[in-house]
Amino acid sequence: MGLQRGTAYSPEKENHRPTNWLWKKKALNHVLSTMRRHSLIPKNTQPQYQTHVPPPPSATVATEKPTAKIQETPLPPIGVVSHKISLLSDEVLLNILSKLPKSQRNANFLVSKRWLNLQGRLVRSIKLLEWEFLISGRLLTRFPNLVHIDISNGCIVSSRNSGIFCSQRDVSFDVGCNVGCNHSFLEDNLVLNAEEVDKGLRIMAGAYPNLRKLVVANSSEMGLLSVAEECPTLQELELFMCNDQVLRGIAACENLQILRLNGVIDGLFNSQVSDVGLTILAQGCKRLVKLELNGCNGTYEGIKAIGQCCPMLEELTLCNHKIEGGWLPALSYCENLRALRFLSCKKIDDGFELDEHSVSCPAFERLHLEKCQLRDKRSLRALFLVCLNMRKLVLTNCWGLNDDIFSTCTVLRRVKSLSVEGCSMLTTQGLESVIVSWNQLQSLKINSCNGIKDSEVTPMLSRVFSTLKDLQWKPDSKSLLSSNLQGSSMGRRGGKFFRKSMVTGNLSRTETVNQIHSFLHVATL
Asked: Are strands 366-370 and 297-298 parallel, antiparallel or unpaired?
């Protein structure tokens, strides 16, 4: 089978060798046996590289050229070839994975179990959907380094694949067909009881002492106390279905800076937060920087307690507030308040009227009104007098904002930025009557206000535009749409549109128009 011993090697003779692979069968058998032996050796005992393995004496032939091919390509172990990355330590591999873009991180856990565990160590924020995942301890095993946990959706007992999906801001869940049509159906056995929620909070607080942000629904005072004791670094908290008694628990969160309270959400739940709860949280959370009250009750005394006990408060948000009239003067106690936001409010303050000599917030800068009803001229004027030092005013999708209501803005003299969007009752004359008196105005943004027309801009208003540093002028949505459609065939009448766009296939222009006219004639008959 092999060459005769002593025969000289020549390329001509090599070309005339048979193509049958049996002439080097012994060498291949030796290579295969070596690979099998290395596959049986444990990975931790395998060498980092494989040196040259000399062939057995029986495979030595007189021709040295074919044998040299095997010697020049050393065969590394299979473990070294397929698991080079596994030689890296967890710290090095975590450093590499952390530098990948977020869009590429989610698929890393499919590589191996080790990568699955490493990817879980990189996750810092999670939104829990299954309550059993927390109670069973799998959350801690899978994600050991969380600092932001949202368990509000996991607290809701919803029927899967019901076909009805409900969403309200950050809360979303499935609704079954047997749900009653009352005003607070989440309270009808569709949410975990407070004892179950407190049990999950205790497990989570013991597992994540470095927790910084928490979102939870229907917890009790004891559950929040366990979080306050075990998680001293907690800085942001959002509570759904909270009441005055629950707020006793967050009074122990001394380092809390951002707090969102959801007392009443129409159609979902109805929990009462009164002056008692506002006073409790004000006396306990003295480092608050941002406070949001959604559907909370109260009076002048509750807002006053927040202003006196929380000197670091800079931003206050009122969403669908139910505060009794006469509370606006209490904002003057918030000495460092810089921003005030009203969201979906049916009223501002319907029981009090301020005069120009009232005390205003000294550090106030921004006022934001979104989806609010601004039909009461007196309450809006009182709000502007409290926020007399504002620098920025934002009005978005507000109902009832006509020229007469907008004229109350003339009491403001330090406005530098004005943004109006979706207020169709405001006209060009009403806008001009206000902004011409603002000598410090630098930025103006007008979007989707159909009552403001380009053709109604006066020379005086044009001079105001020339002094601005930032101007975004898109008032009329119809004119904006037509300008974007110039050059296209959309927006034109039927016959002219079809004649230009429906010439298809093998039909000529005349045949197409004739077919359309005949179709219209038949349809008329």
From this structure: unpaired
Q: Which residues contact 106 (CB under 8 A, 6 or more apart)?
A: none
Position 94 scores a pLDDT of 82
In the block, residue with structure tokens 């929040």: 224
The total of other beta-carbon atoms located within 10 Å of residue 200's CB is 22
Helix and strand totals (H; E) in the chain: 21, 19
What was the pLDDT predicted at 52? 47
Strand partners, 395: 369, 420
Average pLDDT, the chain: 77
Would the CA dihedral through 66, 72, 77, 80 be positive or negative? negative
Identify the bridge partners of residue 524 per DSSP, sorted by sequence position: none
Residue 514, H or E segment:
helix 509-524
CA dihedral 388, 391, 396, 400 (to 10 degrees): 30
24-52 pLDDT, tens digit per residue, is: 566 666 666 666 666 655 555 444 444 44
Alpha-carbon gap, residue 247 to 267, rounded angstroms? 23
Q: Is 237 helix (H, G, I), strand (E, B) or coil?
A: strand
**Residues pairing with 267 in the sheet:** 184
The 10s digit of each residue's pLDDT in 432-471 is: 999 999 999 999 999 999 899 888 999 999 999 999 999 9
Buried/exposed code over 204-222 (b: 16+ C-beta within 10 A; e: otherwise): bbebbeebbbbbbbbbbbe
The 10s digit of each residue's pLDDT in 499-517 is: 444 444 444 444 544 443 4
3-state secondary structure 455-513: HHCCHHHHHHHHCCCEEEEECCHHHHHHHHCCCCCCCCCHHHHHHHHCCCCCCCHHHHH
pLDDT in tens, 288-302: 999 999 989 999 999
Do 329 and 386 contact (CB within 8 A), yes or no? yes
* 522 has pLDDT over 50: no
**DSSP for 37-63, written as a single string:** HHHHS-GGGS-SS----PPPGGG--S-
